[in-house]
Amino acid sequence: MVEAWRITGQAEIDGYVGSRIELAVRLINTLATPFQHGRAVTPPASGADRLAAVLAAQQHLTVHPAANLLTPADADRLAEIAAELRPVFAAGDGLADAAAGLNDLLVRHHAVPNLHGSPANPLGLSFHRPDADPVDAWAADMGTALAMVIGVGQAARLGACQAGKCTLVFFDTTRNASRRFCDLSCQNRAKASAYRARRRA
C-alpha cells in the first residue's frame, strides 16, 4: 500500500489521518469521478454496485470495524459524501467555499475527537463517537482528516489531475507540492497534447 500521507523530507502526517485521506481519495475516484485517463467513465449507480466498489476501495486500510456491515443504502450515502468531498481537492481560489461545505459535513456527521479502545487494544484517537454508524464514522474521519491538512496550510497537496478528460484526485506527497497529474500516463498524455499544440502553432 502506498502510504500517501508520508511527505518526502517533511514531518509525517499521522498514520490515522493519512489513511482517512487515502480513503477519501479512493472513494471519490471510485464513486464520483466522471473522467479517468482521457475517457468518460460511468461510476457505479446502484446501491449493490456502489457497495462492491466501496468494499474494494477500503481494502488494506484500517477503517471502521463495522465496514463489513455496510448495506447498499450505506453505499449510496457514501457516494453522496464522496461527491461532497470532491470540491475540497484542487479548490484553489474557492478554498473558502470548499471549507464551508466541509464544515457543514463535519457538523452533519457528528465529527468529534474521541479516544477509542478496548481491553485488547490501546486507546487511540478517532474523529467519531464509538457508537457512530459506519457512514457517519467514515464521513467524520475523512472530513476531519482533510480539514487538518487544510488547517496546517497544506491545502495545495489536495490535488486533481490537470490532464484533459481526467478528474481523478490525489494527495501530493512531493517535497514542494508540485504534482499536477494523477499518474504518469496522464502526465505523458498532457505532454503529448502540448507538443502537438506547439507543432500546430
Radius of gyration computed on alpha carbons: 18 Å
Biggest sheet architecture? 2 strands, antiparallel
* SSE run: HEEHHHEEHEEH
> How far is the first residue's CA from the last residue's CA?
43 Å
User: How many domain units?
Assistant: 1
User: Would you identify the CATH architecture?
Assistant: Orthogonal Bundle
Number of helices: 6
Mean pLDDT across all residues, rounded? 88
Q: Which structural class best describes the helix and strand composition?
A: mainly alpha
Anisotropy-based shape: globular
Name the quaternary structure: single chain
What do we call the CATH homologous superfamily?
Jann2411-like domain
**Strand order, biggest sheet?**
1-2
CATH topology tier name: Jann2411-like fold
Indicate the CATH class: Mainly Alpha
β content, as a range? 5-15%
Fraction of residues in helix: 40-55%
Question: Key terms for this structure?
Answer:
mainly alpha, 201 residues, single chain, two-stranded antiparallel ribbon, Jann2411-like fold
